[in-house]
Design goal:
Number of helices: 6
Structural class: alpha/beta
Strand order of the largest sheet: 1-2-3-4-5-6
Distance between the termini: 33 Å
Mean pLDDT: 96
Low-confidence stretches: none
CATH superfamily: Ribonuclease Z/Hydroxyacylglutathione hydrolase-like
Number of domains: 1
Largest sheet: 6 strands, mixed
Shape: globular
Helix content: 10-25%
CATH architecture: 4-Layer Sandwich
Radius of gyration: 16 Å
CATH class: Alpha Beta
Length: 205
């Protein structure tokens, strides 16, 4: 499995493209419209969009990918927030790009998408329905944390449906997973072992 990181231009989240065959792809949090063009350059067809949560800076490219045929998936608890003020489009004055959720995912649910095994980990706190995705193939395990966990920090809890107590519980869950690469919604890659040792929000759990 290849993991391709697409950095945002201006304000936005990191987008991640996962492919096992260099033809078909999963896109995690396509933050901006230009993600579609980047996939064309890579020669990849987006089959699935996985959302860690529905905040505006993570979903700006979803509608374009859905129009091209990709299925959009998010957690069953996050779906009710899509298209509401909880997605922060209005709060930040961002132009809304409408999309629909094709399928919802439950906690601990595992799907094989594009030849990659994806397990859904419910990690509320930044939003009520936020999730992380654990991707696994023969090369190892890879954790995509959205805005739950960053290198050296964690997501905010002062937005609608945020909950610091819930986030701390989610961090405990991630901390217990062992060691693996962590790809977060903002900033650089890290590992769970590094965060357990150095992230002040994990060391005091």
């Amino acid at each position: 499995m290849d993991v391709i990181k697409i950095y945002p231009r201006g304000f936005g989240a990191n987008a991640y493209v996962l492919t096992a065959d260099n033809k078909n792809a999963i896109v995690i949090d396509p933050a901006q419209k230009r993600i579609e063009g980047e996939l064309i350059k890579l020669g990849l067809t987006p089959k699935y969009v996985l959302l860690t949560h529905c905040h505006f800076d993570h979903v700006g490219g979803v509608s374009a990918l859905q129009a091209s045929g990709a299925k959009v998936l998010c957690s069953e608890k996050e779906k009710p927030l899509v298209g509401t003020n909880a997605d922060l489009f209005e709060a930040f004055g961002a132009p809304r790009e409408a999309y629909t959720v094709d399928e919802t995912l439950g906690d601990n649910e595992t799907r094989t998408l594009c030849g990659i095994e994806i397990t859904v980990l419910s990690t509320p706190g930044h939003t009520a329905g936020g999730v992380c995705y654990l991707a696994e193939d023969e090369t190892g395990k890879y954790l995509f944390t959205g805005d739950t966990l960053f290198a050296g920090s964690i997501g905010r809890t002062d937005f609608p449906t945020g909950d610091l107590s819930a986030l701390r519980q989610s961090l405990r869950r991630l901390s217990a997973l062992g060691d693996m690469p962590v790809y977060s919604g903002h900033g650089d890659e890290t590992t769970l072992e590094t965060e357990r040792k150095t992230n002040p929000f994990l060391t005091d759990l």
